[in-house]
Design brief:
The chain has 20 helices and 20 strands. The protein is globular, with a radius of gyration of 25 Å. The N and C termini lie far apart (about 60 Å). It has a 6-stranded parallel beta sheet with strand order 3-2-4-5-7-6, sandwiched between helices. The longest helix is centred in the N-terminal third of the chain and has 15 residues, at about 50-65. The protein has helices at about 5-15, 30-35, 50-65, 75-90, 125, 145-155, 170, 195-210, 220, 225-235, 270-275, 330-340, 370-380, 390-400, 420-430, 440-445, 450-455, 470-480, 495-505, 515-520; strands at about 1-5, 20-25, 40-45, 65-70, 95-100, 135, 160-165, 175, 210-215, 240, 255-260, 280-285, 305-310, 325, 385-390, 405-410, 435-440, 460-465, 505-510, 530-535. With about 550 residues, the chain is an alpha/beta fold.
Length: about 550
């Protein structure tokens, strides 16, 4: 049976398990939109294409499966780029579909043409560095092979975005429906436990260590290894520090949690590792600039180092491990438990070694409101909450993330304007999870129009804006490094109460600590859309020193 290429692409999305596609229609993708009309793949109309790619990224982060976004040729495609770049940096599987002018007018100056011919921009080339696979599909005779290549990239060990750019006339051409039989859709992940000899060596190192420490990263979350990390930690009384992206792998505030390791944290984890650890075990943690304190070698000096990661390119990338294990973190830990004969019974936890008392960042009264907000968030939503946080500095020290919550810092390429659309994408997958998007007032003005997308689709969402009338990181750097020569960091904000009224959503203003109790006790933070404004002095910023 002959079907249109646009129908084929929609059927392909259905086979991938995609149930939502975020985007904005344009003339050059209308055949695909028409094929979506009777599909089980639902469409979400955004206010800006960047919002579409951020929403798809948020969906992929919570669902751990391919997501999708779509835009028309030219400006539609270029507007997707920042969110696609973020997904590439996060190794998120994202199907990106763009339109193109018909092939028979390539090079003739068609409206929004981006074929790379005759002086037109080369749309596919713009995505070269931020996709795992990309293809401008100019003919139908190889479309099966293209979809197969795209699938392998989406389900690879290190997945990422895939771009399919389809000219208007090609979308309307027909192919045999059996083309999809050329596509290999991977079954469940093959068990990969790493090298058995290396796991036995790790077990021996743990038995011989006096003060082992685990540094757990986002790879543990991606592998679904929270339970295994907790079992190893509790079974052997091994304290756990996490990377920023790994917050919540073990419940923060519990006896064996060292909290978050990183330049903007309170320093507890770093002090313990430097002063007490003799064995440091990295589990799915990349040890990037933030986590490593700008790659400070003193953190790991004189210690035995083990690194476990599914991504071979991470092994030894920034330090030389004594033992390196390439494998799925969860499967490695399952085999390690067997080697160490750890069962699931409750274990008493030994106290951590004593640490010198130092002034904690949370004692600073200038941050009382944001500290109080995070404390209440942890108290009132100890499980099933989703938090997308663009303003990561405060959460690193103030937010104790439960192992039953999902905390997503703005990592990747750390783009402003990310939290709101990403949170919308995530909530559309996790429909029963209270969802928070936390961001500064500068980033808010880059993406606040997507609140209307949440309104349009009745997506419950809590948007928390830290209002200090400045780009906080820029002002901090200009204060510390540039002699207080402030330029282009301060600005005026809209009336947030009036803005919330215009969106038709609830508004809450936090000016004093009692306002926090009122918010969490009286507001509907689970099923409504709320705009929460937290007032902060623009002269109040953390004292950590940026490197540049």
């Amino acid at each position: 049976m002959q079907i249109s290429v646009s129908d084929l692409i929609v059927r392909y999305m259905e086979r991938l398990g995609i149930d939502l596609i975020f985007g904005m229609p344009g003339a050059h993708v209308l055949p695909i939109y028409d094929s979506l009309y009777h599909s089980r793949v639902r469409t979400v109309l955004v206010k800006h294409e960047q919002g579409a790619s951020f929403m798809a990224g948020g969906y992929a982060r919570i669902a751990h499966r391919p997501s999708a976004c779509i835009a028309t040729a030219g400006p539609g495609a270029t507007n997707l780029i920042t969110g696609v770049a973020n997904a590439f940096a996060e190794q998120q599987p994202m199907l990106v579909i763009t339109g193109e002018t018909s092939t028979y007018i390539f090079g003739r100056g068609g409206l929004q043409e981006s074929s790379g011919e005759g002086g037109a921009i080369d749309q596919a080339e713009l995505f070269r560095g931020i996709t795992r696979y990309r293809k401008l599909i100019e003919r139908t005779d190889y479309v099966g092979q293209v979809l197969n290549q795209a699938t392998q990239a989406l389900f690879a060990a290190q997945p990422g975005p895939v771009l399919l750019s389809v000219p208007y006339n090609v979308q309307k051409e027909t192919v045999d429906e059996t083309v999809l039989e050329q596509v290999h859709f991977p079954d469940a992940m093959v068990r990969d436990a790493g090298q058995p000899g290396a796991i036995a060596q790790l077990a021996q190192l743990i038995r011989g260590a006096e003060r082992p420490v685990i540094i757990a990263g986002y790879g543990c979350i991606k592998a679904g290894a929270r339970g295994e990390v907790a079992s190893i930690s509790e079974g052997l009384d091994i304290p756990v520090a996490t990377s920023l992206k790994g917050k919540g792998i073990v419940t923060e505030g519990s006896p064996l949690s060292l909290g978050c390791l990183g330049v903007t944290s309170n320093g507890e984890a770093r002090r313990y590792i430097e002063e007490h650890a003799d064995l440091v075990i990295f589990l799915g943690a990349g040890f990037n600039e933030r986590t490593s304190y700008l790659w400070d070698t003193s953190l790991l000096d004189g210690k035995t180092i083990v690194q476990v990661d599914r991504d071979a390119s991470q092994l030894g990338r920034v330090f030389s491990p004594d033992v390196a294990i390439q494998g799925d973190v969860r499967h490695v830990l399952e085999d390690l438990r067997e080697q160490l004969q750890i069962d699931d019974a409750a274990h008493a936890t030994a106290p951590l070694a004593p640490m010198a008392t130092v002034p904690a960042a949370e004692d600073d009264p200038r941050f009382a409101l944001i500290r109080g907000f995070y404390s209440a968030l942890a108290q009132y939503f100890p499980h099933n909450a989703i938090v997308f946080d663009d303003n990561i500095v405060f959460a690193q020290s103030y937010f104790d993330v439960s192992d039953r919550n999902h905390y997503f810092p703005n990592s990747g390429i750390s783009s402003l304007g990310h939290a709101i659309p990403a949170a919308i994408g995530a909530r559309l997958f996790a429909e029963d999870s209270p969802t928070f998007a936390i961001l500064g007032d500068g980033g808010f003005q880059m993406c606040c129009m997507e609140i209307m997308t949440a309104v349009n689709y009745r997506v419950p969402l809590n948007v928390v804006v830290i209002n200090n009338g400045t780009m906080g990181l820029i002002r901090k750097n200009q204060y510390q490094l540039y002699g207080e020569r402030y330029i282009d960091c301060d600005f005026s904000n809209p009336d947030f109460a009036a803005l919330a009224a215009a969106f038709g959503i609830a508004y809450h203003r936090i000016e004093q600590l009692s306002d926090i109790d009122d918010l969490f006790q009286r507001a509907d933070l689970e099923a409504a859309i709320n705009l929460v404004e937290i007032v902060m002095d623009k002269h109040a910023f953390p004292t950590y020193l940026s490197s540049r």
